[in-house]
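Bit of a strange request maybe. I'm writing a small parser for C-alpha cell strings and I need a real example to test against, not something I typed by hand. Could someone generate the C-alpha cells for this chain?
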Amino acid sequence: MEPFFIKTLYTPNPRGEVGVSLSIESDAPIPENVNDMVQRYRKRMQAVKVPASEHLNIMLELILEANYVPEFSRQVTCEGFITGWMIKFHGA
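Reply from user aminoacidic:
Good idea to test on real output. This should exercise your parser:
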C-alpha cells in the first residue's frame, strides 16, 4: 500500500499573523476519506485556538480514527519555534 504524507508549514507574515499551508502527497490517488480527514482537521483548527505544539497530535488522532497507520512523524523547529511538521502514514 502506498504511503501518504501530510506536511504543514507555518510562515509568519508582516501583519504578525502566521500563515499555515497544509499539503497531502502520495504516488497513489488521494482517497476521499483522507481529504475528509484533512477537512475535519482544518475545521477543528478554525473552531478552537489550539497551540501549534498540539497540531501534530490532533492530526495523528484523526489518522488513527480513520483506520490509517502512522509510520513516521516529525515536528520541525527553528530557534525554539515550531515551523512545521510531517506525518507519513498508510492504510491498515
